[in-house]
Amino acid sequence: MRIAVVGAYGAGKTTLITAATARTGLPAAHGTPMRDPLGSRPKPLEEATEPELVQLVVRRHAERLLAEAAHPEGFFSDGSLLHEWVYATVRLAVGRYPRRDQGPQLVAAASDDPYRRVLDHLGREFLHRALASYDVFVHLPVEFPLHDAPPPIGEHFRTLSDRLLLDTLHASGVTVRTITGSPEQRLDSLLGLTRPSEPAATVTAADPHHAEPLTPW
């Protein structure tokens, strides 16, 4: 089974996947840290310029494709093929620390910025690949605050990222299953999805009407 575990930065994806891998034997698929763009001095993601950010998105996407293709028998994808696109789209639209009054319409709005337009078209291709790559999409909502000091993004950035991700998937018609609770409860729910014959009572379909529809393209 090919399971994409999706959610905003700091939602607990890696923690959950690490535990699920130990219990099931299914490997985890992910890329290298998103930093150090080629053609520049070594730098963290937070210092990447707009063209460098697009380069890093493409690099990470290619790494994910290779990592997932290496496990045709099944895997847990840490974030999915859409993760970096979501991050970059929100960042170029509203920055890393958006104000609370900067809503999802700013992320979804058409833009004349060339880098945002490139990301828009990359997102179409990434979504197409993601829909063909996974059997199940599992969403982890933002339930825990960030503990990084200083945090690399604001809390509202996480909210906008989650909104863009879910609305993009819902617009495609795919079913997204949201799991919540403590780490142990999340793990039980995820393990239930790897055993289709057993009911996973704590797993519920994400509500596509949780907010006003957002047109991702």
Helix fraction bin: 40-55%
Number of beta-strand segments: 6
Q: How can the largest sheet be summarized? A: 6 strands, mixed
- What order do the SSEs take from the amino end to the carboxyl end, as H and E? EHEHEHHHEHEHE
Number of contiguous helices: 7
Query: Radius of gyration in whole Å, from Cα?
Result: 17 Å
Strand order of the largest sheet: 2-3-1-4-5-6
Q: Summarize model confidence as the mean pLDDT.
A: 90
Tell me what you see in this structure.
With 217 residues, this protein is α/β, with parallel strands linked by helices. 45% of the residues lie in helices and 9% in strands. The chain is built from seven helices and six strands; from the N terminus they run βαβαβαααβαβαβ. It has helices at 13-24, 50-69, 83-94, 104-108, 114-133, 155-172, 183-193, and strands at residues 2-6, 28-29, 75-78, 136-139, 176-178, 204-205. A six-stranded mixed β-sheet has the order 2-3-1-4-5-6. α6 links the parallel β4 (136-139) and β5 (176-178).
